[in-house]
Automatic annotation (TrEMBL):
This is Thermosome subunit. Gene3D superfamilies: GroEL (3.50.7.10), GroEL-like equatorial domain (1.10.560.10), TCP-1-like chaperonin intermediate domain (3.30.260.10). Keywords: ATP-binding, Chaperone, Nucleotide-binding. Belongs to the TCP-1 chaperonin family. InterPro entries: Chaperone_TCP-1, Chaperonin_TCP-1_CS, Cpn60/GroEL/TCP-1, GroEL-like_apical_dom_sf, GROEL-like_equatorial_sf, TCP-1-like_intermed_sf, TCP-1_chaperonin, thermosome_alpha. NCBIfam families: thermosome_alpha, thermosome_arch, thermosome_beta. GO terms for molecular function: ATP binding; ATP hydrolysis activity; ATP-dependent protein folding chaperone; unfolded protein binding. PROSITE patterns: TCP1_1, TCP1_2, TCP1_3. Transmembrane segments: none annotated.
Amino acid sequence: MAQLSGVPILILKEGAERKQGKNAQKNNIAAAKAVAEAVRTTLGPKGMDKMLVDSLGDVTITNDGATILDTIDVEHPAAKMIVEVAKTQDEKVGDGTTSSVIFAGELLNLAEELIEQSVHPTIIFRGYRKALLKCKDLIKDLSIKIEPDDKETLTKLAITSMNSKLITGVKSQFADIAVRAVTQITEDRGSRRIIDLDQIQIIKKEGKSLLDTKIIDGIIIDKEIVHPMMPKSILDAKIALISSSLEVEKTEFDAEIRIQTPGQINKFLEEEANLLKNRVLKLTEIGANVVFCQKGVDDKAQNILAKEGVITVRRVKRSDMEKLARASNAKIINNISDITSGDLGKAGRVEEKKIGDDNMIFISECSDPKAVSILIRAGIEHVVDEAERMLHDALSVVKATIEFPYILPGGGASEIELAKQLKAYARSIGGREQLAIEIYANALEIIPKTLVENAGYNPVDLIVELRSKHETEAGKSSGINIDTGKPDNMLDLGVLEPSSVLIQAIQSATEVSSMILKIDDVIAASSLSKGSQD
Ligand SMILES: Nc1ncnc2c1ncn2[C@@H]1O[C@H](COP(=O)(O)OP(=O)(O)OP(=O)(O)O)[C@@H](O)[C@H]1O
Ligand SMILES: [Mg+2]
């Protein structure tokens, strides 16, 4: 509200709320910190899980930062910005969501203390930017380059990403599956490697145990064979993918056929059936013994195909047709008269199997499939769902590493080392910005601190021990041994993380905390619900 010779001028609509200056900042920081606090206890292998109940009463039990924040309904605008950090992290690299949120919360927490000491937010903001750029350089130096086909290291990275998840005991099996799946669908295009995780189809079915989870060198189609007389399994399959229907063709225009004798109608129907028969037999002529049809297959066509011993599946989704094409190296054909034997795909085995209560078609033993399926089994739904989230992290980490093959020691080792080197850098900057860079370094230590705290050890002692280890070159990879509560070499323990996960985490955490710090005025329009109550 401005004043003009004593008369107030209203610039905002009635009911709008406005917070300014330190008040606005404090309020935003408190909200962002609250979000970070909500996920803090889930970080690391000894982190706890959250049980989330949505408005319909559906329960999710998870340890996954992105899932937790996605499920809880956050109202406050600054809190929403923090939730965005987790989402971005999940989309870009698929892991490290909890870490990025906790780090953002700590950057704001420590900034608040500086603001209390009358350091202007702009200075903090500038210091944070410098610290981020320096950190990225330091990460380059600290990172270890690996060969993208180094399966052993990729497996260790996958296991580290799953260490913190609810389900234990199947980690190495899941890690093997993740590495196999991602390397299988990786395509080399010149010097670039392209990985599209959508080419890994995940099928979840309750029943049996997690140990029965497996990867199929091919695709699973959630459909049944159309005709009971068709074989239930075929070895050495030659697969035709047809996008048009296998039915008696209807003429495109209205035609009138005058029939004088009953013989003529029979002849006409016979002719129609013959046309269809010729089309269908074209498939067997070129050697197809399995047919996937995107549209319908009528009774007549079914009978012919059953007689010929061809497995046929109809109304297959377009996306599944594409996966089948990638898995078996087949071409999707619209006009059957054009099909040749070169268009057929190959699979060692095609069979219908009962999984749980449903029949499904397994197209497996493909020789170099560019799309694969993973079938997740577990006794109950909650476990199947968490297993899927866990697999998502493992697949993402393997993908991220193949695309950018640099890794870092985990268990807080890299954060402690970065903090140490960043503090040395801060001293070279001097002035008030030095303070901001120093608190950035301190904020990085929130990751090892939280890991230790969640594992039930004393963070103060352990962080001091870790810092002193990092004084020497040999101690550079020292992180927390979660089992002993002592510093240990993370490279020796095989606790490894992709560099891209840490780079993305500090990048988005810095961006969002700087953005929140720069806000000194929050103007909120009166909400609709408030308005309607008036
Ligand atoms: N065996 C281990 N010993 C020590 N630290 C470990 C071990 N395994 C994993 N960690 C650490 O746990 C942290 C990751 O924990 P967590 O997976 O819960 O969070 P996140 O990856 O940040 O988020 P999310 O997985 O929910 O997206 C990393 O700092 C990682 O180095
Ligand atoms: Mg993780």
